[in-house]
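Re: that chain you flagged

S.,

Sorry for the slow reply, it's been a week of failed gels. I finally had a moment to sit down with the sequence you sent. For the record, here it is as I used it:
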Amino acid sequence: MDYKPFTPFSDENIDGHMIFGMEGKNCRTTIINGKGSTKTEFVDLDEDKINAWTMEQSKKLWGRIKSQSILIFKNYIYWEARVKQMASDRRIT
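Prediction finished late last night. Pasting the structure tokens below so you have them in one place:
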């Protein structure tokens, strides 16, 4: 299978690539009634350039998602501690 991932490929996300990336749409040749049928290639597009740009954009996006996740987690920890402190203060007074 000719598979060019649009996001970084690693041990952490191989399952997602296998489920969502390696689909039949990436198949180049199909056998129908014993005869080979090949997909038409896009001759006017630079696939490697497009794939490189897509990979670069996906890395930027995942970087933003990870930093937002960390910020959300830090806010959660902060508010969880505040709620516990407020509950503790009510017990004392």
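What I noticed first: Strands lie at 29-32, 35-38.

Talk soon,
D.
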